[in-house]
Amino acid sequence: MHSYSLIAPAKINLYLEIIGDRPDGYHELAMILQSIDLADRIHLRSNGTEAIRVQCDDPQVPVDASNLAHKAAAVMKEAFPEAFRRYGGVDIMIYKRIPMGAGLAGGSTNAAAVLVGLDLMWNLGLTQGEIQELGGRIGSDVPFCVAGGTAIATGRGEKLSPLPSLEGLYAVLAKYQSLPVSTVWAYKSYREHFQSTYVSDDESLIGRRQRVHAGAMVSAILHQDGAKIGQQLHNDLEKVVLPAYPLVAELREKLAQLDTLGVMMSGSGSTVFALTDSLPQAERIRQALRELLPDPHLGIWTTQLIGGGIRLEN
Ligand code: C5P
To answer: What percent of the chain has pLDDT over 90?
Structure first.
């Protein structure tokens, strides 16, 4: 086949703990990542030229080599030069639904879809692990986005331990449309404020990772206990993003006044989400938040937690 359409779901962070500095300049993390059904659609087509071309229905999305979907195709071209010679370049069309600068891995999931799609288009027969390894060269969240579902992520975020899928949980997402937060800034700012709390020796690092694996959030997920999951939501980056972005802090406060299982910022923000255990309750939260904050620039989505990552469109 010369063209493929893929669904690329967003993620939220149920848990994000910053453990320390890494020799590669990144942070050592312990996270629990969760796919949601808010998704972009990616269409790939062989273009019979030597070019990698990206287009997007949202004019705000850059379509040059800085776009992670473009980077993913470039990584595949470099890793599989013979396949690139045989099949030629590719047109990548992104139908954008996931907001940008949102902490929802919108760019990373687009890159993951390109990796999965080119593996099919070029008949490479890669394993999921091989695709994830390529994904790690593009961004820390890309390996998770390939497989999706619910997973513990350690290291830079690329070391994954899958957890059972969460059934019957929903997330109401809220984000001011023109309020992105830079991930680079968020981590840099965290380091400036909290580096004295970082652990560096191997023993403490392993201990902190084990604490997450054996911790209350994983136990709540294993028991499919939505109320406990809501209580255990955690994100260290809130400590720097909320003080610097009063609108995000206000959004979080308003959501926390409503009848939800729990409220947290996702990734480096600026999305705040509330968990619920039914779709009607998620809808009620969406409407109640709209009444509390009638600003037309506030985007609100009701989404379901889902058990997988990149998939072909039916
Ligand atoms: O890996 P990715 O390019 O998505 O990361 C974006 C930025 O977030 C990095 O450049 C870095 O500043 C920060 N980051 C970090 N530690 C991680 C992941 C991301 O400091 N584990």
So the answer is: 96
Phi, psi of 214, rounded to the nearest 5 degrees: -100, 10
- String of DSSP letters for 37-99: EEEEEEEEEE-SSS-EEEEESSTTS--STTSHHHHHHHHHHHH-HHHHHHH--EEEEEE--SP
Measured in whole angstroms, how far is the alpha carbon of residue 65 from the centre of its chain? 20
pTM over 0.90? The answer is yes
Which residues, in sequence order, are CB contacts of 284 under 8 Å at separation 6+?
A: 259
d(CA 38, CA 129) in angstroms, rounded, equals 24
AA letter at 140: S
Query: For this structure, is 141 an active site residue?
Result: yes
Asked whether 254 lines ligand 1 (CB < 6 A), one says no
Give me the pLDDT at residue 51, please. Answer: 96
Residue that the structure tokens 């604490």 belong to: 211
Q: Torsion-angle region of residue 98: left (phi > 0), alpha (psi -120 to 50) or beta? A: beta
Whole-angstrom distance, CA of residue 205 vs CA of residue 184: 23
Question: pLDDT for 160-203, tens place per residue?
Answer: 999 999 999 999 999 999 999 999 999 999 999 999 999 989 89
Q: Ligand 1 pocket check: which of 17, 19, 26 to mutate, most ligand atoms within 8 Å of Cβ? A: 26
Domains of the chain and CATH, by start: 3-166+308-312 (3.30.230.10), 170-202+226-304 (3.30.70.890)
- Residue identified by tokens 């620039």 is 297
Query: Ligand 1 in contact with 157 (CB < 6 A)?
Result: yes
Whose Cα sits closest to atom 15 in ligand 1? Answer: 26
CB 17 less than 6 A from any atom of ligand 1: no
Q: Whose CA is nearest to atom 14 of ligand 1?
A: 26
C-alpha closest to that of 108 among 142, 71, 136? 142
- Distance separating alpha carbons of residues 158 and 180, to the nearest angstrom: 24
